[in-house]
Every structure is written in C-alpha cells, then in structure tokens.
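Sequence in, structure out.
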Amino acid sequence: MRTIMLLASTAILTACSVSDGDEANAIGNNVVEAACQPLDPEAKAALRKLDQDYAAAWKLEGTEAQREALLDLFIEKATIIPGNGGEPLSGREALDGYWFPSDSPPTVVSRFERSTASVEGTNCLAAITGRSSAAWIVDDEETAYEGNYIILAEKRPTGAWKIRKMTWNSRPQGD
C-alpha cells in the first residue's frame, strides 16, 4: 500500500509539474487512475458500516469492550480533532487517553446514533460525513449532544477500511 501511495503521490506531483501533452503527464495520470478508482457500491457499503461500527463500539457494555472495539477502527497513527476546540491528538495511545482516562468513573453510553450523509472518494481514501446524537451517563447524570462529523478513512493492505482522521462538532441536545 505504501508503494502504491508513493507512486500515486509521485504521479500526482509529476502530473502537476509537466505541461499538457507531455509524456510524463500521461504516464503519471495512468498510474493515478490505476491506483485509485472511484468508490464502487461495495466500498461505499463498507464505509457506511465503518461509520455505524463507530457508534456500535460506544454502545458496548464495559470500558474494556468499548476501548478494544473503538481503537480497532483506527489506523495506528490516526488523528482526531475534538469538536470542543481541543488540540489534535494522534496515535491510538493518545486516543485511548482522551476517551478512556484512567481516573475517569465508568461511563454508560445509553444512546449513540449516526446518520451518514455522504460517502465520497476513491478506493484508496474516502470521506464520510453525517450527523450524530448521543447520550451517556456518568455518576448517575445523563449528558446528551448532537452534531456533525467527518471521517477520513483509508483502505488498508488487508482490504479493511480504517479511520485515518476524524473531527466533529457538538452541542447539548435541544439547544
């Protein structure tokens, strides 16, 4: 996959740096076209499933089950950009610390719904956008929110789609 991405990146740069009609431009365009084709219906379905798997991971019972399922959806060096204005966080360890701090009381996610608005991209890299709403209980107090999100997903050498980057915004539900 790294070789394909390197070839694709080189081809894109080559295509942008040579004049129209140049042989290198034609070769560069052919490499990009061969490497990254538009999403087919099967890929779009897999990406919609990835989006729903994110919500399903949060609804699992127990912090360990949530952690395992959730972090498995991300590439090792994934980045999230929290919607509360927080700094971007990169790497599964940072995501784990953000979502599952060791000093945090148990959290029960009572509701997590996602409505995929669009899935766009290529069979290498794709964007998923949508709306979400969730509610969780900490220390017998429920908090609910709604908002928008965007996920940048990449297809791994295994054929599985994983989250590379994600950001969201949220506001208390009902505002």
